[in-house]
Amino acid sequence: MNNKYVDKFSKDFLWGGAVAANQVEGAWDVDGKGIDYTNYCVGGLMGYNPEKAKNTLYMPERKAIDFYHTYPEDIKLFSEMGFKVFRTSLSWTRIFPTGEETEPNELGLEYYDHLFDELIKYNIQPLVTISHYEMPVNLIEKYGSWRNRKLIKFYLHYCETIFKRYKDKVKLWMPFNELNNMRRNPEYVGGILGEHGHGKMQAIYQASHNMFVANASAVKLCHEIIPDSKVGAMYSLSNIYPNNCDPQTVFETMDCRRRSLFYGDVMIRGYYPTYIYRLWNENNIHIEMTSDDLKLIKENTNDFLAFSYYRTTTHEKGQKFFGDTGGDIGTPNPYLKTSDWGWQIDPTGFRYTLNELWDRYQIPLFPVENGLGAKDIVEDGKIHDPYRMDYLRQHVTAMKEAIKDGVSIMGYTWWGPIDMVSAGTFQMSKRYGFIYVDLDDQGNGTRRRIRKDSFYYYKQIIDSNGENLNEK
């Protein structure tokens, strides 16, 4: 047998779970925290409306599941499942309330110190997203967000502060969450508001360039301050198939996918791919960039590729490209089952995506978001969720098959291991967790934590390092 053939998860495989600060922490105005983008959204991340938000009685993400105060008991539950890694984001405005302060908010820094200490106590490695849809509103309103190059300086001051503060506690970092979502949802990714048509496209690609420079600068800075650190690029990479074999449909599908992979081509390969210049030329897009920018990007590529994968869709000729927090939206695939929220379940697509990314980039992959949002029913104080266990089993199996295909995978973090506020809809009823949180969409409930059946199933998977997938 070829000694390079691998048929199981590595002994140091990082099993765990993932959340975002804005979906779990709550405490939106506590201990000096400033206003971030999500605090002014109504009904989901696409609902940015400051005036309406100020007059809305209940905003789910402002209280969320109160992880800000409950993290010790929640992390203990993660430890019980056997987590090796826990992905969370930092709330930018907890540390720099407006984004442009010279001195950080010490109470915000202390909170994350305590959080990381609690994780380390249980031998759980922190995986930290620096900016996860939590941009300071001040930077949007005063500077126009990432379309303004001045944001690079503010962002890097934030990065330097946290790298120096947490250098002994955090070794795995990701500068931005799902950066490639700029192409379809620039509002919550880059704070690009009020633009339409050509102006929006120009703003998207100029902001993307500024974020590429910020990312490369953060990689360089992190490696200097924390020499044993790894800095990943993180994208939304749920996949898309041609709906039929019409050559035009196939080409448009490839073009749609390439517009997402463009971000990896720059940040991982280290240069702008030639195909993007045609897109810019045909849409009269002019990007302000310097030779120093390109040199910086070339010399400071990311160490691993992290990504979210939830579903696949299909594309028909002439169909408009658009999407939501789960990825691109096209024509439903008749061969796939569909979740309660209309997301089609495709574990084979997960294996396909892992192979696609490995073949293209040849750096370690890390699926940091994969999960099933579903309606759970409490019966006699218990939650039986075989649908979630089935989804997990199928996707872990697909991941193992990709490893046999030769794909290098660092770890896997389920989104999210505890119920939290959905980013796309701001609902609690769209539940992902292995841990149930007694809270409804209107904020009613005790916030009590209950282990679901899937809690024990994931524990079994981790305990066996992915070998025992039998459902009891």
Task: Describe it.
The protein has 472 residues and is an alpha/beta fold. It has a single domain (14-463), classed as Glycosidases (TIM Barrel), CATH 3.20.20.80. It contains 16 helices and 18 strands. It has helices spanning 21-24, 50-54, 60-63, 67-81, 92-95, 106-121, 137-143, 150-166, 186-190, 197-225, 247-269, 275-282, 291-299, 347-361, 386-404, 453-463, and strands at 14-18, 85-89, 125-131, 172-176, 230-236, 239-242, 304-308, 312-315, 322-324, 327-329, 337-338, 344-345, 365-369, 378-379, 382-383, 411-415, 435-437, 449-451. The strands form 6 sheets. Strands 13-7-5-4-3-2-1-16 form an 8-stranded parallel β-sheet. It has a two-stranded parallel sheet with strand order 6-8. Strands 9-10 form a two-stranded antiparallel ribbon.
Which keywords apply here?
two-stranded parallel sheet; TIM Barrel; 16 helices; 472 residues; alpha/beta
Low-confidence stretches: none
Span between N and C termini? 34 Å
Radius of gyration from the CA trace?
21 Å
Strand tally, please?
18
Number of helices: 16
Structural class: alpha/beta
Shape: globular
- Estimate percent helicity: 40-55%
Tally of individual domains: 1
Task: Give the helices and strands, then pairings.
Elements: E1 14-18, H1 21-24, H2 50-54, H3 60-63, H4 67-81, E2 85-89, H5 92-95, H6 106-121, E3 125-131, H7 137-143, H8 150-166, E4 172-176, H9 186-190, H10 197-225, E5 230-236, E6 239-242, H11 247-269, H12 275-282, H13 291-299, E7 304-308, E8 312-315, E9 322-324, E10 327-329, E11 337-338, E12 344-345, H14 347-361, E13 365-369, E14 378-379, E15 382-383, H15 386-404, E16 411-415, E17 435-437, E18 449-451, H16 453-463
Parallel strand pairs: 1-2, 1-16, 2-3, 3-4, 4-5, 5-7, 6-8, 7-13
Antiparallel strand pairs: 9-10, 11-12, 14-15, 17-18
Helix pairs in contact: 4-6, 8-10, 10-13, 14-15, 15-16
